[in-house]
Amino acid sequence: MSLDDFYLSRERRRALARRVHPLFETRGPPGTHDILRCREAMARLGQPGEVRLPVFDKGLDERGGTRRVRGPFDLVLLEGWCVGASPAADADLAQPINRLERERDADGIWRRYANAQLGQGYAETWDRLDYLVYLRVPDLAAVVRWRLQQESALPAQQRLGTAAIELFVQHFERITRAMMTALPERADLSVELADDHSVAAMAFRSAQARTSDGTPT
After folding, report:
1. N or C: which end of the chain has fewer CB within 10 A?
2. Burial 32-62 (b: 16+ CB within 10 A, else e)
3. Terminal CA-to-CA distance of the chain, rounded, Å?
4. In angstroms, rounded to a whole number, what is the distance separating the alpha carbons of residues 24 and 174?
């Protein structure tokens, strides 16, 4: 499953934007997913029976129906940019880190709400993961380049230009940078990606390090 397919509909994001902060109209940050539905789907896929999974159309920025699968499945893989991310300390949110935060979230309402979501429904979802694999990007510039490559696959009228992509990526910069620091130590497998998307290095965390009491599993 892709976490992206659990984005809220455009109308639900607009409602969130009106209620909390205008930046929540843009999909991506914690708070813009139906994380409860994601968690329920993860549980149901391990059981017999049909499961309807949502499908999100990024070109239209809207939900595009559902797809049907039939369980039980032995393995369920959930992929998404913020899978495994943890909330930051409140003090770490005080200062804006980029132009988007300085100009459109000067009071910190947007980033604090997204951070709070990471500590609630998202954390409950990550707690159900048996194994965490982290794909570490080289830097934020690579994220912009790769996103532009993705845009090239969309119809011309739906593509975003470089300036728009750079602004879009700023929505994810704070959490992405935090993950680049924290997740290599927490993930069961950390994969370093090179600029061309190839694997530059891999590191496994020992089974002993994964136990809470220090005993091997």
Report:
1. C
2. bbbbeebbebbebbeeeeebebbebebeeee
3. 28
4. 15
The structure tokens 């992206």 sit at 4
Neighbours of 23 (CB within 10 A): 22
Q: What is the C-alpha separation between 13 and 61, in angstroms, rounded?
A: 11
- pLDDT tens across 102-147, in order? 999 999 999 999 999 999 999 999 999 999 999 999 998 898 888 8
Indicate the CATH number for domain 3-208: 3.40.50.300
- Please report, as a single letter, which amino acid is at residue 96: P
pLDDT at residue 212 tops 70: no
Look at residue 10 and tell me whether its pLDDT is greater than 60: yes
CA distance 106 to 34: 27
Note the pLDDT tens digit of each residue in 81-98: 999 999 999 999 999 999
Q: What is the DSSP letter of 214?
A: S
Closest of 22, 69, 33 to residue 49, by C-alpha: 69
DSSP state of 77: -
pTM listed for this prediction = 0.88
